Amino acid sequence: MRAPDDHDVTTAAPGQPLAASPSGRAAAPASILALVAVVLGTWSAPAPARLLCLGGAAVLAPALFALWRRQARLAGALRTSRAQFTALVRSSADPVVLLDDSLRVTFASPAIAALLGRDPAELPGLPLAHAVHQDDRRTLFATLRTQADDHGELAVRTARIRTGDGGWRLVQATVRDLRADPEVGALVLFCSDVTARREGPDPELLELALTDPVTGLPNRSALVRRLAAVQRQGPAHRASLVLLSVDGAASAGPGAETAVLRALTSRLARELRGEDWLTRGKDGDFVVLVDGGVADAEVVAARLIATLRWLATPAGRLTATAGVTGLAADVDPGEALRRADLALHSARTAGAGSVHRFDDALRSAEDRRSALSTDLAGALARGELRLVFQPVVDVVLQRTVSVEALLRWRHPELGDVSPQEFVPLAEESPLITELSRWVLREACATVAGLPGEELAVAVNVSARHVHSGELVADVVAALGTSGLPASRLVVELTESMLLDSHVADELQTLRGLGVRIAVDDFGTGWSSLAYLAGMPVDLLKMDQHFLADVEHDPQRRALCRGVLQLGTSLGLPVVVEGVTTTGQLALLRDMGHRYLQGYAFARPLEAGQLADGGWPTAVAVGLDAPAGPAVPS
Ligand code: C2E
Ligand code: MG
Ligand code: MG
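Above: the input record for the complex with magnesium ion. Below: its predicted structure, written as C-alpha cells.
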C-alpha cells in the first residue's frame, strides 16, 4: 500500500486512478537511447549498411522525439495531479485515513490532529479496532469487510472514535474500497466530525444511540441535536432541510432490503457536498441538513431524486419524493421537521419525483386536517354521518342490480366534507373500524328493508378494518341483525389490499358465507393477471380514470376493452364506475360492458329516496336514458 507522499507521482486520487505506468513513462527516452546505440553500433559496418542505417534513423528520429515529448508532458501532468491530490488530502479540514487489508492504519492526513488530538505520524501501523468504541465496532467492521459496489463505494458509517485525551468524538466516514486499485491498494475513509460541535465533549450524547443501525447514518436524535446547534449560530447562518422519502426498497424482500438501503445511502452521500449532512429520519426516510437556503435545498432534493435513476437494485428502480423547508432561527427543530413532513405529504400527492416546499397554505391545510380529525371522532355519535346509495345498472336486463353505499359527513361549520378527505383521516386511526362497522350495519339494514326488492348492496371496506381481524364478525353481525342474505352483500376492497396473505384468508371466509368480493378502483394498482387468478374475487370495478377522454382517445378505448377482456378471461364480471356522459354510456355499451355505475344513470341517493322508489329501478338504458334524480353526491 502506498501512502500519498510528496515524491511519489504514481499514487492516484481516490476514485480517479491515474492511468500512466512507470514503465510507460520511461519508454520514450529508452527508445531514443536504443536508436543512438543502433546508430553507433553500425558505425563500423560497411558503408552501404551504414548509409541505410543512418537513413532509417533520420526517418525515425522525429517520430520518436515527438513520442518522447508527449510522454514527458503526460508525466508532468501526472506529477501535477499527484501534487494537487496530496495538497488536497493534506490541507483538507476533514481527515482522510487509509487502511490496509487487516484494517490497520497506513496513513492519516494532518487534519486528524484537530479531530482526535493525535499526531498523524504515530498512527500508521495501529489497528483501527483500538480507536473505535466497542459498541460501534460490529457495524463499522462488517461494512469494511463487505464487497464494495462497482464504483468502489461501500457505505457511510458513523462511529465513536477515541481521542488522544481518552474522550470520544462521533465521526462519520464515507468509505471507498480502493484495495483493488494498484496505485492506492487501500480502504479510504473520508472522515468528518459529527459530534454537536459547540456542545463540547458530552458523555450523555455519546451514550445515546445516535446511529441508524441499517445505514450507519446519524439518526433522528443526532439530527435534532445538530439542528439545535446550527440554530444557535444565529440567523446569519442559513440552513435548510430536505426530507426524502424513497419508495421501492422494501419490495426487494427482507433479506435484500438492507443491502438496497446501504447502496442507496452510498449513492445519496456521493451526491452531497461536504457541508451537507445526510441522516436517517423516522419511518425510514432520509433527511439532509443543507448548508444554504431553501432554494439550495430544492436543488439538492432534485439531484438526489435524479440520482436514483442510476441505481439498479434487486427491487428494480427506486422512486422518491421530497419536502423542503428552511431552518428558521425561531422554529424549534421538531417543528422544522414537521414542516418538512407537511411539504413531503404534499409532494406525495403530486406523485413520485415531486419536490414541494413548505409554505403557509400547507400549514392551513394541515390545520384543517387536524381539526377534521378531531371532529370526526365524535361525528357518528352526533348524528352527522349518513349513507347514500348509488345504483349499478345492468344494461342487458335494463335494471338496477345493486347499490353502492357511500358515506357522507355534514360538518356543522364546514358543511359537506368529501369522503375522499375524511376517509383517509379515519384510516389513520382505529376510528375507521368503528365507522366501517356502522356502515356495514346501516347499509345491510337499509337494503334489507326495501319493499319487494332483491337488490345487492356494496360496502367499501378499508385495509385497517380487515387487519383488525373483526371484519368477518362484523359482517356476520350486520347480516344477522338485518336479515339480508349473504349473497346480497358485496365487500369492496382495493387492489393493494389483496396482496396481503392475511387478507386473502379473511376474504375466503367471507366467500364461504356467500358474500361476494369486488376489487374496487381496478386498474390503479398492480393489476397482475397471474395474481388475480388465484385470488378470492367475484367482480372487478374498473376505475373511473379509464373513462377520461374515452370518447376521443383511441388508446383509452383500447384500455377499456382490455379490462373487459381481462375480466372475461378470468370469468369475472366488470362494473364500470363513473359513467358520466351519454357519449361514454353509448361507447361502453357498444364495447360489451354490461354493468355500469355513474351520474349518467343516477347520483348517489338518500336512503329515503331508495325506500320511496324514487330511483331508476328499471331504467330505459339507452342514449336517451333519463338521468336519475339529482342528489348531491
Ligand atoms: P369509490 O368506492 O370508488 O366510490 C365511487 C366514487 O365515485 C364515489 O365518490 C361516487 O360518488 C363517485 N361517482 C359516482 N358516479 C360518478 C360519476 O359519474 N362521475 C364522477 N366524477 N364520480 C362519480 P365518493 O362518494 O365521493 O367516494 C369517494 C371514495 O371514498 C370512494 O370511492 C371510496 O373509496 C371512499 N368511500 C366512500 N364511502 C366509504 C365508506 O363507507 N367506507 C370506506 N372505507 N370508503 C368510502
Ligand atoms: Mg367503491
Ligand atoms: Mg371505485
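Notes for the reader.
The first strand starts at residue 96 and ends at 99.
The chain has four domains: 30-90, 92-193, 219-358, 371-621.
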